[in-house]
Every structure is written in C-alpha cells, then in structure tokens.
Specification:
Elements (H helix, E strand, L loop, with lengths): L24 H13 L5 H9 L4 H14 L5 H7 L4 H12 L12
C-alpha cells in the first residue's frame, strides 16, 4: 500500500531544494516580479499565461503588488492575502520552477 494515493506535489521550503537548483524564497519572489513586469516582452512566459486564460496585465498587477510588499511578505502570504492574484501567481511559480525538474526527480535515478 502506498502512503499517498493521489497525484501529489510536495513543495519543501527553507532551502531544502536549493541544491537541486530551485530558487530560495526571496529569489523566487524577485524572479516572479521580474517575469511579470516584463511579461509582454517574454513570449514564452506570455504563452504560459495565455494557456491558463491570463494576460500580461494580470502579471503586471502581481509585479506591482510584489513591489509594494518586497521584503515583507513571502509569495505564499502575498497570494493568500490577494486571492485575485492567486492564478497568475501560481502560473508564475510553475513557470519559474518547472525548468529545475529533471528526469528521475530530485536525486532520482
């Protein structure tokens, strides 16, 4: 019997995944802000937004909110406090972390 029966993604915090190339919280937040600020010029990120029915303006609103709160909130708290930005935030997190997933998983064969 497996401990987890449904498809699950585990996100480890506090630098647990840094050695695998994943960004730390502050790096992730600034990366999200930068990608969102310049979404119109980044065709790959813009395509990711459009794939989930978002626009560059949605990303711009997230970038602005991050600028207003930089250094005081993590991305999870910021999205929790701004549910209207949840979808664009999750899209940006997926876009920025996806390249770090390698075949075989973390430390896998």
């Amino acid at each position: 019997m497996r401990a987890i029966e449904t498809p699950t993604v585990l996100i480890l915090g506090a630098g647990a995944s840094q050695e695998y190339g994943f960004p730390l919280g502050a790096e992730l937040l600034s990366g999200i802000r930068d990608h969102c600020r310049f979404a119109q010029q980044n065709t790959a990120f813009l395509s990711a937004l459009k794939a989930v029915d978002l626009r560059s303006e949605d990303a711009g609103r997230l970038a602005q909110r991050i600028d207003e709160n930089i250094g005081t909130l993590s991305i999870d708290v910021l999205l929790e406090q701004n549910p209207d930005l949840d979808k664009v935030g999750k899209c940006a997190i997926a876009y920025l972390t996806y390249p770090h997933f390698q075949p075989g998983g973390l430390g896998g064969a």
